[in-house]
Design brief:
- The chain has helices at 2-20, 29-42, 49-61, 69-96, 117-137, 143-166, 180-206, 215-238, 241-244, 258-266, 269-278, 284-296, 299-319, 324-337; strands at 101-102, 105-106.
- The protein has 342 residues and is an all-alpha fold.
- Helix 3 runs antiparallel to helix 14 and helix 7 packs across helix 8 (215-238).
- The relative contact order is 0.10.
- GO terms for molecular function: (2E,6E)-farnesyl diphosphate synthase activity; dimethylallyltranstransferase activity; metal ion binding.
C-alpha cells in the first residue's frame, strides 16, 4: 500500500510538470509559480482514496494479472484526474460554505494573497482534467466515454451542490422542508457520483467495459456514497477537527445535514422550538445549543445504529453481485470507509 501510494505520487509530479509546460505560462515565471503552488496546496494533500481506488479497482478487475508499467501509469493518471476534480470542488465549496480550514490548513481562498482568485483557480483545476485526458488517452478506444463520464459526473455534482445551497437562502430558511428524502437527493448528487461511482467507472472503462452494462454496480456505489456523506455530516459536528482536518460549519450554514433531519424526526415540541431558534445562526452560543440538543437526542447512538445497518445492507447487495471480481472491488471500497474517523 505504501508502495502504491509512492508510485501514485510520482505520477502526480509527472502530470504537474506536463501541465506547467503549457504555453499559457511561458510569458511569466510568476504564472507558472502560481499554478505550481496552487496545485501543491490543493491537489495532493487529502487521503487520496478516490484516486488510489482507480488503481485498486483496475487490479481487482484484472483478477490477479500483474499490471504493466503503462497500465499503472494510466490508472494513476485517471486517479489523479479524480483528485483534480475533487480539488476543484473543494476550493469552490469552501468559498460557498464560508469554511475556514481544509486538510489541516487554511482554505485556499483564506490565504491573504489568494482571496477570490481562488474562483479562477477552481476553473484552472477543472480545465486541467481534459488536458490530462487528451495527452494520455486520446488514442484509446474509450477516450470519448471518459470525457463523457467526467462531464456527466461534474454536472451531477454541481446539481447536488445547487440543491444543497438553495435550501439555505437567507430569508427562505425553512426547517420543515428538511426530510430524509431531500437529504438523500442532495448527497446522492453532490457526493456519491464523484466520490464513489467515478473511480470504479474509470477502472471499468480501462478494462474495456461498457458502463451501460454495470448499472447494478453504479447503484451500489451510489448507496455507498450516501452512507459516506452521512458520515461526513456526522463528523462535521462530532469529529475531531485535528483528525478530519476541517472545522464544521453545517449548523451555522443551515445545511440539510443528516443530523438535523434526524433531530427533527426525534424531537418533542419544546426541542423543535429550540432547534428552530438556534439552527443556522453564526453565533457560537446558538451553535452550542444545537449541539447540546443533538447530544440530548443521542444522535451519536442513532448514527452508530445507522452505520451498522448501512454496512450490513451494503454487504448483502455486494454479495448478491454475480462477479467475484466486482464484489472484491466493492468490498475493498467499503472496507476503506466503514467506521472512518476522518
Ligand atoms: C461535499 O459537501 C460536496 C462537495 C465538496 C461537492 C462540491 C461541489 C461543487 C460543484 C463545488 P460538504 O460541503 O459537506 O463537504 P465538506 O464537509 O468537505 O466541506
Ligand atoms: Mg458544501
Ligand atoms: Mg463544505
Ligand atoms: Mg461536510
Amino acid at each position: 500500500m505504501a508502495d502504491l501510494k509512492s508510485t501514485f505520487l510520482k505520477v502526480y509530479s509527472v502530470l504537474k510538470s506536463e501541465l506547467l509546460e503549457d504555453p499559457a505560462f511561458e510569458w511569466t515565471d510568476d504564472s507558472r509559480q502560481w499554478v505550481e503552488r496552487m496545485l501543491d496546496y490543493n491537489v495532493p494533500g487529502g487521503k487520496l482514496n478516490r484516486g488510489l481506488s482507480v488503481i485498486d479497482s483496475y487490479k481487482l478487475l484484472k483478477e490477479g494479472k500483474e499490471l504493466t508499467e503503462e497500465e499503472i501509469f494510466l490508472a494513476s493518471s485517471l486517479g489523479w484526474c479524480i483528485e483534480w476534480l475533487q480539488a476543484y470542488f473543494l476550493v469552490l465549496d469552501d468559498i460557498m460554505d464560508n469554511s475556514h480550514t481544509r486538510r489541516g490548513q487554511p482554505c485556499w481562498f483564506r490565504l491573504p494573497k489568494v482571496g477570490l482568485i481562488a474562483a479562477n483557480d477552481g476553473i484552472i483545476l477543472r480545465n486541467h482534467i481534459p488536458r490530462i485526458l487528451r495527452k494520455h488517452f486520446r488514442n484509446k478506444p474509450y477516450y470519448v466515454d471518459l470525457l463523457d463520464l467526467f462531464n456527466e459526473v461534474e454536472f451531477q455534482t454541481a446539481s447536488g451542490q445547487m440543491i444543497d445551497l438553495i435550501t439555505t437562502i437567507e430569508g427562505e430558511k425553512d426547517l420543515s422542508k428538511y426530510t430524509l428524502s431531500l437529504h438523500r437527493r442532495i448527497v446522492q448528487y453532490k457526493t456519491a457520483y464523484y466520490s464513489f461511482y467515478l473511480s470504479v467507472a474509470c477502472a471499468l472503462l480501462m478494462s474495456g467495459e461498457q458502463l451501460d452494462n454495470h448499472i447494478d454496480v453504479k447503484n451500489i456505489l451510489v448507496d455507498m456514497g450516501i452512507y459516506f456523506q452521512v458520515q461526513d455530516d456526522y463528523l462535521d459536528c462530532f469529529g475531531a477537527p485535528e483528525t478530519i482536518g476541517k472545522i464544521g460549519t453545517d449548523i451555522e450554514d443551515f445545511k440539510c445535514s443528516w443530523l438535523v433531519v434526524k433531530a427533527l424526526e426525534l424531537c418533542n415540541e419544546e426541542q423543535k422550538k429550540a432547534l428552530h431558534e438556534n439552527y443556522g445562526k453564526p453565533d457560537p452560543a446558538n451553535v452550542a445549543k444545537v449541539k447540546a440538543l443533538y447530544k440530548e437526542l443521542d444522535l451519536q447512538g442513532v448514527f452508530a445504529e445507522y452505520e451498522s445497518k448501512s454496512y450490513e445492507k451494503l454487504v448483502t447487495s455486494i454479495e448478491a453481485h454475480p462477479s467475484k471480481a466486482v464484489q472484491a472491488v466493492l468490498k475493498s471500497f467499503l472496507g476503506k470507509i466503514y467506521k472512518r474517523q476522518k
